[in-house]
Amino acid sequence: MEHAGAGPAWALALEHSALGETLRQALWLYPAANVLHVLAVVAMVGSIFAFDLRIMGVARSLPVAALARLLLPIAAGGFAVAAVTGFLLFTADATAVWNNPVFVYKLGLIGLGLVNIVVFHVIPWRGVETWNAEVPSPAPAMAGAFVSAGVWAGTATLGRLIAYF
Predict the structure, then answer these.
(1) pLDDT digits (tens, 9 = 90+) for 39-83
(2) Distance, CA of 95 to CA of 91 (rounded, Å)
(3) For the chain, how big is the Rg over CA atoms in Å?
(4) DSSP one-letter code for 132
(5) Which of 52, 98, 107, 127 has CB 3.0 to 4.6 Å from 145, enough for a Cys bridge?
(6) Is the Cβ–Cβ distance between 144 and 48 less than 8 Å?
(7) Max Cα distance, the chain (Å)
């Protein structure tokens, strides 16, 4: 990893902070954060995909609200752990990662995914009791599920591609 690259002052300061230095120098800290990050992304994206598939019409006998009570906390917890471990990984090589366009696209997709969650919960989710089980989800909910599945698959893919660009 390049640690003296050009970049914004805040990224350079972050990279040369005690946290950034520790992540680069401790033998197991960076690999542990990386493994935890991948596991958190798997929990998050897997839960989101299962929920999105149900909204798209797979397994209509399962009540959407009950499935949400199971899967959405797992997705939220996975996102929280992925955000923390992602920040730790970023700290170790902030200037190089910030200068990587794949990372910027990933941040954009994360923002789009979070906006999609808010829109989903503000608009179609309010009427979930009318399409909870054995009834097709309304078009706005299906659209949100398709956007969600695409955005989070893209985010996970770009996250893995950062190392190659």
Answers:
(1) 999 999 999 999 999 999 999 999 999 999 999 999 999 999 999
(2) 9
(3) 18
(4) S
(5) 52
(6) no
(7) 58
